[in-house]
Specification:
Elements (H helix, E strand, L loop, with lengths): L9 E4 L15 H16 L3 E6 L7 E4 L5 E4 L11 E2 L1 E2 L2 E2 L1 E6 L2 E11 L5 E6 L7 H4 L10 H21 L6 E5 L6 H13 L3 H10 L1 E4 L10 E3 H15 L3 H5 L9 E3 H7 L3 E4 L2 H10 L5 E3 L6 H4 L2 H6 L3 H23 L8 E6 L15 H8 L6 E6 L7 H15 L6 E4 L4 H10 L2 E4 L11 H6 L4 E5 L14 E3 L4 H18 L8 H14 L4 H12 L3
Parallel strand pairs: 1-2, 1-11, 2-10, 11-12, 12-15, 15-16, 17-18, 17-20, 18-19, 20-21, 21-22
Antiparallel strand pairs: 3-4, 5-9, 6-7, 8-9, 9-10, 13-14
Helix pairs in contact: 1-19, 3-4, 4-5, 12-15
Family: Belongs to the glycogen phosphorylase family.
Organism: Candidatus Beckwithbacteria bacterium CG23_combo_of_CG06-09_8_20_14_all_34_8
Pfam families: Phosphorylase
């Protein structure tokens, strides 16, 4: 670990971090994965800092109208009350200046220190030095126009490097977690040219040698492209400072269409290594971008955050596992009753679908045959409860329509047997991944880069019913869980429920324990150990960090 120290650490940049349920710094799995990564680095005592943006809660609260439509409300965020503190240098609060077209935008700096000195730094444009139109840059996560998103990414990448340097932190490696922070490359080039007297080409190559990149999605929405003219407007100042043409500066992000600047292509071209987040995602990435050095590192989850500690202590004791699971089911039912006002019989088999609401994740398809589904759920002898939770992005009208359609079914034909839990966040997720019997995963095949919610559920012995995609493609589910036919999703789901899942759950011994089900829970708990953030971080160290 000699190449990394407190002053020369690994710097992990991401546009979102899921550290705390009450802090709206994340939109979905990417942010929660980033939060788990920082926690794992702290657990291992790595020389490690993380850099992101302090969003102020715009559109952070989900409200469901009486007709099932999602609306967004703002959350008033006070970073000080949530464990963040101002960053000071020489007893003065630190502010970072980032040049955007013709003006300088200022960002105040926040920090949260985890154990072993691992620190998360966040930049925040809500400060008196800025005019109103600049103060709002970091108010909302992934909202606004193409230009407002670009401003956020420039603040994150350029401002993040400046923040660290202002604290005399000069990382020996920069880890770009997804493409949005990649503009840090511009600031590194300027720094190496100014302080080391390097040419543009020398500085560019040095910056690249110190940067690695993890791609998290092959879905177009996660791989932004910007209008080149917009990039020219914002990049001209930096090109002039480097003594090069704007076309040369933008060249790493130009693909086949010369009018578009692609952030994924840019991130790949400014990094010396890239990683995919599951085996199928790695293989697809290599196929799509074969000219880069790809590594396979499947995502993992932070067990101390997601696994019930009593479940961990059970080891392979079946009686203990079942007892803890029954308590978790009760806790989940009580939590849902407290937060929504709705209740259900916790002795029912509970199936949960919970993650970001998006069209390609296909939760709406399990409602294709309402009558057949209703017959399964309302069976008097073997009843089944379905729980659904997840927010759509504020601008994702398709996902909002799917959600409205599902809620309509919950209010009518499936009332009482399918419940929606609004405002999905880390707290809701913790209850669901511990208190469900079955975790349902329904993505369009080839669209889920990894997925991590199922890993969290598996860490608590929750059985998986899944389309084999992302991380679930890596597992042989025979005798552990069930895999769905991606081309006939609803019919295969109904068939598995009727023929195997429901009968197995309700097949009890003289003590009321489903022994065959319990054996699958034990196998699931063992399998889940392969999907910890500890394993993921160890692979980062080996394949990306050269530790």
């Amino acid at each position: 670990m000699s190449q990394y120290t407190a002053q020369n650490p690994i710097a992990y940049f991401c546009a979102e971090f899921g550290i705390d349920s009450h802090l709206p710094l994340y939109a979905g799995g990417l942010g929660v994965l980033a939060g788990d990564t920082v926690k794992e680095a702290a657990d291992q005592g790595l020389p490690f800092v993380a850099v992101g943006l302090m969003y102020r809660g715009e559109n952070a609260i989900q409200e469901i109208t009486s007709d099932g439509m999602q609306q967004e409300k703002d959350l008033d965020v006070d970073p000080l009350s949530l464990g963040f503190e101002h960053v000071y240098v020489d007893d003065m609060p630190l502010f970072i200046k980032v040049h955007l077209t013709t003006i300088d935008v200022w960002a105040r700096c926040w920090k949260k220190t985890l154990k072993n000195g691992v620190t998360l730094y966040l930049l925040d444009t809500e400060t008196d030095q800025n005019l109103k139109q600049e103060r709002v840059i970091t108010h909302a996560l992934y909202s606004g126009t193409e230009e407002s998103l670009l401003k956020q990414q420039l603040i994150l990448g350029i401002g993040g490097v400046k923040l660290l340097h202002a604290l005399d932190i000069y990382p020996n490696l920069y880890h770009i977690n997804e493409g949005r922070p990649a503009f840090l490359h511009w600031q590194l080039i300027r720094t190496y040219m100014d302080t080391h007297g390097l040419s543009y080409e020398e500085a560019r190559d040095k910056a690249k040698s110190k940067t690695v990149y993890t791609n998290h999605t092959l879905v177009a929405a996660g791989n932004e492209s910007y209008n080149v003219n917009l990039l020219k407007t914002y990049g001209l100042y930096y090109a002039e400072k480097m003594g090069i043409s704007i076309d040369k500066l933008l060249e790493p992000g130009i693909e086949d269409n010369p009018e578009k600047f692609n952030m994924t292509r840019f991130a790949l071209n400014v990094s010396c290594k890239a990683s995919g987040v599951s085996l199928p995602h790695y293989e697809l990435s290599k196929k799509q971008w074969p000219e880069y050095q790809w590594h396979h590192i499947t995502n993992g989850v932070h067990f101390p955050t997601w696994q019930d500690q009593e479940m961990r202590a059970c080891d392979k004791d079946g009686n203990c596992i079942w007892t803890v699971h029954q308590r978790n089911k009760k806790d989940l039912r009580e939590y849902i009753q407290k937060t929504t006002g709705f209740a259900y019989d916790e002795n029912r088999m509970v199936i949960s679908w919970a993650r970001r609401m998006a069209g390609y994740k296909r939760p709406q398809e399990i409602f294709d045959d309402i009558n057949r589904l209703k017959n399964i759920l309302t069976n008097l002898q073997y009843p089944v409860q379905i729980l659904i939770s997840g927010k759509a992005h504020a601008k994702d009208t398709q996902a909002k329509m799917f959600l409205q359609e599902m809620i309509h079914h919950m209010q009518h034909e499936l009332s009482g047997y399918v419940l929606y839990i609004p405002n999905y966040n880390m707290e809701v997720a913790q209850y669901l991944v511990r208190g469900s019997d079955v975790w349902l995963n329904t993505p369009t095949k080839g669209m889920e880069a990894s997925g991590t919610s199922g890993m969290k559920a598996a860490a608590n012995g929750v059985l998986q019913c899944t389309v084999r995609d992302g991380w679930t493609e890596e597992v042989d589910w025979y005798g552990i869980g069930w895999d769905l036919d991606p081309n006939h999703l609803s019919s295969s789901f109904y068939h598995l429920l009727e023929s195997d899942i429901v009968p197995k759950f309700y097949q009890r011994d003289e003590n009321g324990v489903p022994q065959a089900w319990l054996e699958r829970m034990k196998k699931t708990l063992t399998m889940a150990l392969q999907y910890s953030a500890t394993r993921m971080m160890n692979e980062y160290k080996q394949k990306l960090y050269n530790l």
